[in-house]
Write a structure and sequence with these properties.
Blueprint lengths: L18 E5 L5 E3 L2 E5 L8 E8 L4 E5 L10 E5 L5 H6 L1
Antiparallel strand pairs: 1-2, 3-4, 3-6, 4-5
């Protein structure tokens, strides 16, 4: 990958995520692999989930609770840089 100065910038290909075209309730872009946090879902419980592509329905979903919307949640991190966030949720 190249930056604006045409210098080679090393990247880890496994950390690249597809942009969903959506933003969370704070205006942060949402990417595949992002960890979503909802302070209170329909049942009033906290929720942490991962944004994934669901090929069966051809859309991005939040694993574990597919009915959350981007207005309900905010991006707390991603599975590559913050995997410890998912350990807390389990």
């Amino acid at each position: 990958m190249y930056n604006s100065l045409w210098d080679i910038v090393p990247i880890q290909h496994k950390t690249l995520g597809q942009y969903t075209g959506l933003k969370d309730k704070n205006g942060v872009e949402i990417y595949e692999g992002d960890i979503f946090y909802a302070p209170g879902n329909i049942a009033g419980e906290e929720f942490i989930g991962v944004v994934e592509w669901d090929s069966e329905s051809a859309r991005f979903i939040t694993r574990g609770y597919p009915y959350l919307t981007n207005e309900d949640c905010f991006v707390k991190g991603n599975i590559y840089e913050n995997p410890e966030l998912l350990e807390v949720a389990e």
